[in-house]
Amino acid sequence: MSSDALENANRYFEQAAKVLDLGRDVAVQLRTPFREVRVELNVRMDDGSIGTFVGYRVQHDNARGPFKGGLRYHHEVDAQEVTALAQLMTWKTAVAGVPFGGGKGGIHVDASKLSVGEKERITRAFVDKINDIVGDHTDIPAPDMYTGPQEMGWFLDQYTKYHGYKPGVVTGKPIELGGSHGRAAATGRGCLYVTEELMARLGEPLVGKTVVVQGFGNVGGWAARLFAEQGALVVAISDISGGYYDPKGIDVAAALAWVAKHRTLAGFHAAKKVDNDELLTLPCDILVPAALGGVITEEVARGIRARVIVEGANGPTTPGADEILFAKGVHVIPDILANAGGVTVSYFEWVQNLQHYYWDEARVNEELRRVMRAAFDATWEQSRSRSLPMRMGAYVVGIGRVYTATRMRGL
Ligand SMILES: NC(=O)C1=CN([C@@H]2O[C@H](COP(=O)(O)OP(=O)(O)OC[C@H]3O[C@@H](n4cnc5c(N)ncnc54)[C@H](OP(=O)(O)O)[C@@H]3O)[C@@H](O)[C@H]2O)C=CC1
Ligand SMILES: O=C(O)CCC(=O)C(=O)O
């Protein structure tokens, strides 16, 4: 995603601003981030040297509630990427109808090269630098690529040293520290729920549909598992080590067990090994990109054979590719709708933290389905009534809600 991420996000925004007939001044106001923070992190590495890293937190918009969005540890993280991802969060929380704005953070680092201790020290150093601008009613981080419950646990612990115990300052925590049941699966589960909604509109069953998933981490791993549990046939999966393809179906449970033991899919047996670009153009009914942004380029889009794309990742499709896919009749469930299950259950976690009253997983999943269905309905209705791709339908819903909140606040 990195270099073109902001350009792509702004292009989608401008397209939607035109549909909504927003004035230039309003469009600039809505698009401009509230605050962009860049911090230097100096950390003692295991070999005794000093590691210097750069961290970012961009707070895009808070008209509808506190800034909300994940933290990514990746070597492509830069100011533009984090700003683009923060903007996507603003529209996403609005499409989901959860009372948050949008923000995102990240650290420019290759997480695969860090020991657990180094990761912990980097996380704590980051909290040292940004604790004054986050808080349970101001800005609430969460996991994104290469962060998870453990990083959120360290984040909470370090934050507590400055501001006392406020578990709602961060979501995606371990259950033992006030995390929510169902948060780990939530983004993948949300992908499943919106796909079920689309299939119902198309009058087709999900059972027996072939599915290709790119990325086998939190989102991709759970998506593959949940689609398989519903009777779809997962024919290919992938991670940084490449793609694993079997037209007769991948044993997803075995793949998850493999990754739990070996960390990546490298060495996992499948009928055919493909690379991550080939994977995207494999014959299938449903493609779920669930890794990095910018992977579906115009060239890839021309070769795509899936009929449905469910954007588990943020920003996987470039605007040029999006046009090609629309012209080909591919149904793209856009990121700000498809992967909104994560922030939705983060909202449930925050509510539980503020109330000190905890829900069971059945309640979480039931409420998640309700939110995803409503978000899908609103998107579908906009896209049908205005003859727009679903992405623009979702943008119209999200930006429209943020615009209304902004106006009602009085400027
Ligand atoms: N976590 C969440 O709740 C949410 C995440 N998202 C988005 O979903 C996407 C994935 O996030 P998440 O699952 O949390 O991240 P994880 O870190 O849990 O997993 C990332 C996965 O992507 C793989 N990957 C990394 N680079 C590549 C590549 N170049 N080609 C193929 N696979 C690759 C990783 O492989 P390996 O492990 O081998 O390095 C890993 O399997 C991101 O775009 C994120 O922004 C969106 C909404 C919520
Ligand atoms: O759970 C959250 O608050 C945000 C997750 C996230 O970063 C995302 O939806 O992209």
From TrEMBL:
Annotated NAD(+) binding sites: T187, N218
Residues annotated as catalytic: K104 (proton donor)
SMART domains: ELFV_dehydrog
Key word Zinc present: no
One BP term from GO: L-glutamate catabolic process
UniProt xrefs under Pfam families: ELFV_dehydrog, ELFV_dehydrog_N
Domain Glutamate/phenylalanine/leucine/valine/L-tryptophan dehydrogenase C-terminal: 180-410
GO molecular function: glutamate dehydrogenase (NAD+) activity; nucleotide binding
Entry binding sites for substrate: K68, K92, S346
Top-level division of the source organism's lineage: Bacteria
Residues annotated as site: Important for catalysis: D144
Keywords (A to Z) from UniProt: NAD, Nucleotide-binding, Oxidoreductase
Family that this chain belongs to: Belongs to the Glu/Leu/Phe/Val dehydrogenases family.
The name this protein goes by in its record: Glutamate dehydrogenase
Organism in which the protein naturally occurs: Sandaracinus amylolyticus
